[in-house]
Amino acid sequence: MTDSPSHSPRPQRLAGHVLVEALIAQGIDTVFGVPGESYLAVLDGFHEHADKIRFIACRQEGGAAFMAEAQGKLTGRPGVCFVTRGPGATNASIGLHTAFQDSTPMVLFIGQVASDQRDREAFQELDYRQVFGPGTLGFAKWVGEVHDPARLPEYISRAFHTALQGRPGPVVLVLPEDMLTQATDAPVLPRAEPAHAWPAPGGLRDLRALLVAAERPFVIAGGSGWDAAACAALQRFAENWNLPVGCAFRFQDLFDNRHANYAGDVGIGINPALARRIGEADLVIAVGARLGEMTTGGYTLLKAPRPLQKLVHIHAGPEELGRVYAADLLLQSSMAAAAKALEALAAPTRPAWGDWTAAAHADYEANHVAAAVQPLDMAEVVKTIQRLAPADTVYTNGAGNYSGWLHRFCRYHGLQHAGRTQLAPTAGAMGYGVPAAVAAALLYPERTVVNIAGDGDFLMTGQELATATGYGAKRLISVVVDNGTYGTIRMHQEREYPGRVSGSDLFNPDFAALAEAFGWRAARVSDTAGFEPAFAAALDSGRPTLLHLKLDADVSTSRSSLQAIRDAARRRLGQA
Asked: Does the global pTM surpass 0.85?
């Protein structure tokens, strides 16, 4: 049982201080942001309560928002970001959009012009309900603006409840600067805890009947709202029924990748054998996954709107159920409740699909075998990282073809074993990996954090190396894969317009020298043999380290080369 804040009258204090007290009551001890004159009273509140909460000053609002999004993923509580009006808010929009598409709880606080200046297009003024409101269909679950300091705790409580409940996601609270400087005796409200919807008993009976009748069932787990107990319950459900389990795009740490029931990741660069298996399944049970474009292979693994397979879709958000797919069974439930209910379903003594499940895991194991690449083999790089790094290491990445090696060759531990170990944007946001790694290193200084970034990806937010240095991050390693190109775009160019390169070449700095300028250790690696000693030294150093890997641009993905893609395109277009 948690202690509730006192309901007795509180002394008068600045509304900006009340806001900070309300965050502390919500269990927040770290927030990320870029300071602004529009919320000076809040910054003073962080100074007043520096023994209970810290403000991490970042180098760009996009990086700050990514850090808060990563905080939401890691903790399961809303990540918190503060930015100033206008340019600060629009810079932060990339992190807000990522939180929305990734279903991550987050609260973005935006300083606003004073109330008596509104609607004059005052300096940096924007209407944030128009900019970020639900009508955008992709930025925030709710946008509120606080005009009365006495209601500030009410707004914060609503923001946290909204961010956590149903399909989790981001909320925006707008703070007029004159409101923050007013005095109030408003008491803070208790810590928000999400209400949990449970699957209907009749629906569970129907699900069991579908399972009993199935010959080739398959489970896809994904989405947010999971905790250690829910993931453990999901694993027991899979064991009870001997079900193959795949993880939705960039949710690979929801199920232990070493488990005999694990079948692989269902996303970009999917194992072709796994794609065939999902196509051959006669029942797909999607637990928590939205079944969006990336997980469904452009809505082909499950044909929209009516799949060939029977489909059970379990999701916390009622708006997601039936949004794309006309499923055979829809169950609204939080993941904590759904996993417990699934675990309790009575299973037959020996399900009939044992060979099907064993073959699915064998396909996953076979997918870890790849042809050697010289001089630098990214498959061996990822396998070496995992062999040397601690079991609870947090891995982060942004967007780009380089991430395919991490998704394919990293065996993530189940959340119940080590907490979240994968921080990656399902929104495909470049620049996510470095800020996410910095946030993880600052929030969990006892854990090792490994970021893998492409050269284009890294320079989107690489200035946040300064944030890591300034706040004392230590067990943090960034592996920069430098192939001198926006690799994903170049791949698509060669596929659609072979040999016609335009706009995808990069002109890069010396990444090792750049890292050293930020106070990091750094090393350069040009071949596979040189990686293991460089990575081992980084682990032993106790300092943030960047490893600069030079990769031939022709090494496009974990499965193909640019030359092979180009040749195939020319044959298809009759240019061979």
From this structure: yes
